Amino acid sequence: MRVLFCCFMVLTILSCNEKKRAVQVHEIPAVDFPYKFSVDLAQEYKYDSLFQQGQIAGTRYSFIGNEELVAQNFYHNLPDREALGDSVYTVFTKSHVAVNAFEYILERAKEEQMLILNEAHHKPKHRVFTRQLLQELFNNGFRYFGAEALNELDIIDLNYRRYPIYFSGFYTDEPQFGELVRDALSIGYEVFAYEGEGNGKSREINQAKNIAEFLKNKPNAKTLIHCGYQHAQEGTINSSWEKAMAGRVLEYTGINPLTVNQTWYDNKYYSKHLTPLQKRIDISEPSVFVDSSGFSYLGASDTSGFDIVVFHEQSEYINGRPTWLLGKNKEWVEVDLNPSGLDYPYFLFAFKTGENITEAIPVDLLEITDSLQTAHFALSKGKYEIVAQSITKKAASFNLEVE
User: Fold this and answer.
1) Which residues have C-beta within 8 Å of that of residue 160, sequence separation ≥ 6?
2) Cα separation, 167 vs 156, whole angstroms
3) DSSP per-residue string spanning 141-209
4) Cα–Cα dist 243/252, whole Å
């Protein structure tokens, strides 16, 4: 599908055999979006050399889908690492075989009451991964979806509204997180927040207590939890926290969760940042390496704290965008914009028709920095409102249907 966008009208070609359909483009008032252009972020973090500030900058770049700048900011202190040596790698390959991560997790989750997956907050791919599990987990009886990123003050409205807004959280502003929440609601999950007050140990305890409180009157409820980093780790982890949220869940609910780690062996923009083991393996899909007993690599260890460890493949790119954005049910939709009247850079947002564009999280967004770029959205079938807004706050919109 190809969409042509000019100053006054859009020409949509639904397929090679269908006629073009003219669509009117309308100028609209500028919207106060929370997303910042790359040039603005670069200026904002220009003088920040602290590692923590690099993490924040990297996360902010992930909101606008700029993986290269995510890597430059988030991993700027990470050294290049040598690939794993032959002898150690030979032992690994003789004792483990790669299997499809989705299939493995879904099979392991069939008899489980709670599944907890973690993410790195600057990695939208981890949200796409969890989103691809939603329907099959629902088919297997999972009915509740909790995320630490969600704002408790919006939960009642969120479940009624059926789509996330900027008030729904912070990390949920990132479009793939928005899609994760949106799909969970569409499938039929009840979405809940469980973030706890405090820091360190008190935060982990309060998160687990909030989950326990939510499940108090839901016996045998099957629950999916999506959280950040170590919150998904079981057992004793350090002298400060003692236990993370996942370990506290067992303590306060009696449920031993099935825990999944996506962060240890996630994909990187630059191959030099991969772990020594990742530099030797060759996978083309998210994978779990299992031993002869069917246990995940590191998952059978009492010290790892995770039941399943996912290895993410290196990204492949089409027209500058990673193919994992497509997930299971999306396709590339190209939009050509004649920038007359729009100064560079500008954002292109895709919103679900019927959602309030002044507050809804876009399904996808693109930053267009020059006339040489092409604009490819990752969209599922449906109706959308496409909004273009320049750095000088000039905005226009048009409607688009993906069939």
Assistant:
1) none
2) 12
3) TEEEEEETTB-GGGHHHHHHH-S-BGGGBSGGGSHHHHHHHHHHHHHTPEEE----SSSTHHHHHHHHH
4) 12
Q: How far apart are the first and last CA of the chain?
A: 9
Could you tell me the residue ranges of all domains in the chain?
Answer: 2-69+329-402, 86-317
Angstrom CA distances, 259 to 112, 119, 168, 247, 355, stand at 10, 12, 25, 10, 34
Separation of alpha carbons 266 and 337, rounded Å = 34
Q: Mean pLDDT over residues 358-385, rounded?
A: 94
Q: Is the pLDDT of residue 112 over 70?
A: yes
pLDDT, tens digit, 9 for 90 and up, residues 113-141: 999 999 999 999 999 999 999 999 999 99
pLDDT tens, residue by residue, 16-29:
333 334 467 888 99
CATH of domain 86-317: 3.40.50.11550
Give the model's pLDDT for residue 338: 58
Greatest distance between any 2 Cα atoms in the chain: 67
Mean pLDDT, residues 5-11 taken together:
38
Q: Do residues 296 and 308 make contact, with C-beta atoms less than 8 angstroms apart?
A: yes
Cβ–Cβ under 8 Å, residues 118 and 260: yes
What residue type is 378 in one-letter code?
A: A
User: How far is residue 381's CA from residue 285's CA, in Å, rounded to a whole number?
Assistant: 24
- The closest of 210, 62, 203 to 127, measured between CA atoms, is 62
Read off the pTM: 0.93
Q: Do the beta carbons of residue 359 and residue 330 sit within 8 Å?
A: no
CA 26 vs. chain centroid, Å, equals: 31
Distance CA 72, CA 30 (A): 31
